[in-house]
Amino acid sequence: MTWDCGQENCGRAYGKEVSIMEKVYKAMKSVGAFNIVFGILTIVGGTLMGAFLIVNGGKLLHRKKDIIF
Questions:
Q1: 67 by DSSP, 3-state: which?
Q2: Which residues contact 8 (CB under 8 A, 6 or more apart)?
Q3: What is the pLDDT along the chain (69 residues), one digit of tens a residue?
Q4: Model-level pTM?
Q5: CA 57 to chain centre
Q6: What is the torsion angle, in degrees rounded to the nearest 10, for the CA atoms of residue 45, residue 48, residue 49 and residue 51?
Q7: Can you say whether the dihedral through the CA atoms of 18, 7, 31, 25 is positive or negative?
Q8: What's the half-sphere exposure (Cβ side, CA atoms, 13 Å) at 46?
Q9: Which residues of 18-43 are buried (b: 16+ CB within 10 A; e: fewer)?
Q10: Which one of 2, 34, 50, 65 is least enclosed by Cβ atoms within 10 Å?
Q11: Do 49 and 57 form a contact (C-beta atoms < 8 A)?
């Protein structure tokens, strides 16, 4: 089985030769996994930062009577 890529071994998926499609599949697999992990970390980080800002805003509002100019 060969692909029309101009190279003799680009479409072979057996033996020691790795096809271009296999390389693309492996790259897409690792990039997809990274995107899922990064998305989860972004959601968790955003949630934590939002909670941190709410707590600190509440503390500031609670202690605004202690501020003297």
A1: coil
A2: 2
A3: 445 555 555 555 555 567 888 888 888 988 999 999 999 999 999 999 999 999 999 999 999 888 887
A4: 0.59
A5: 30
A6: 160
A7: negative
A8: 6
A9: ebeeeeeeeeeeeeeeeeeeeeeeee
A10: 65
A11: no
